[in-house]
Amino acid sequence: MNDSPYIPHPIDLSDIELPDGLKQLVELLARNVHETWAQNRLNEGWTYGPERNDTLKHHPCLVSYDELSEIEKDYDRNTAVATLKTIIKLGWTIEK
């Protein structure tokens, strides 16, 4: 193992602006990000709990996407936006 601290180097996406037409796709991807995360947690034995408890494997976000707070939804939206921007930055196109 390396003794140096890990320093992330994500692709610089500051020059990429998503077209307005992708806003619906962002929301669909954000919803799926949450669904995938939740399914993985459930598969690992986690259940809903009003407060996160790693020992008991309880998590307050094990609810449907619609029940999440806007702050939690924004976390998933940010992941979706970064994914779409990365696709565009790498030269791919997105079309329906």
Describe this structure in words.
43% of the residues lie in helices and 4% in strands. The protein has 96 residues and is mainly α. The chain is flat, with a radius of gyration of 17 Å. The mean pLDDT is 96.
Mean pLDDT: 96
Instruction: State the separation between the terminal residues, measured CA to CA.
Output: 44 Å
The rough form would be described as flat
Q: Strands across the major sheet, in which order?
A: 1-2
Short account of what is shown:
This protein has helices at residues 23-43, 70-89; strands at residues 47-48, 58-59. With 96 residues, the protein is mostly helical.
How are the SSEs ordered, and which strands pair?
Blueprint lengths: L22 H21 L3 E2 L9 E2 L10 H20 L7
Parallel strand pairs: 1-2
Helix pairs in contact: 1-2
Features of this protein?
96 residues, 2 helices, flat, 4% strand
